[in-house]
């Protein structure tokens, strides 16, 4: 599936960031970009990531929630478009 391969690619890119660099990267995102990234975080978890990947994804999730609030989570789950 093309969407799953795209998600795997995004996951690899997210994993390449050091934890110290995640906050500054998230701070540069617009609300729409943050929502899209949050969709990829959830989709990556859904695809069965291992513990190291999940740890990285949870770091991204925490920074996205810190900047965009719980609205980011609500927008992802209530949106009609899926990855």
From TrEMBL:
Q: What is its main location?
A: cytoplasm
Iron-sulfur as a keyword of this entry, yes or no, is no
Cellular component aspect of the GO annotation: Arp2/3 protein complex
**InterPro entries in the cross-refs:** ARPC5, ARPC5_sf
| Keywords in alphabetical order | Cytoplasm, Cytoskeleton
Subcellular location(s) of the protein: Cytoplasm, Cytoskeleton
Q: Name one Pfam family in it.
A: P16-Arc
Superkingdom in the source lineage: Eukaryota
**What are the coiled-coil residue ranges?**
none
Kindly list the biological process annotations in GO that this record carries.
Arp2/3 complex-mediated actin nucleation; regulation of actin filament polymerization
The record's function comment reads:
Functions as component of the Arp2/3 complex which is involved in regulation of actin polymerization and together with an activating nucleation-promoting factor (NPF) mediates the formation of branched actin networks. Arp2/3 complex plays a critical role in the control of cell morphogenesis via the modulation of cell polarity development. Functions as a component of the Arp2/3 complex which is involved in regulation of actin polymerization and together with an activating nucleation-promoting factor (NPF) mediates the formation of branched actin networks.
**Similarity comment text for this entry:** Belongs to the ARPC5 family.
Q: What is this protein called?
A: Actin-related protein 2/3 complex subunit 5
């Amino acid at each position: 599936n093309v969407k799953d391969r795209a998600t795997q690619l995004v996951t690899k890119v997210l994993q390449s960031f050091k934890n110290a660099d995640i906050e500054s990267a998230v701070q540069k995102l617009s609300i729409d970009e943050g929502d899209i990234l949050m969709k990829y975080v959830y989709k990556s978890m859904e695809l069965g990531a291992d513990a190291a990947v999940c740890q990285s994804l949870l770091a991204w999730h925490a920074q996205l929630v810190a900047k965009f609030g719980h609205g980011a989570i609500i927008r992802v789950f209530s949106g009609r478009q899926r990855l």
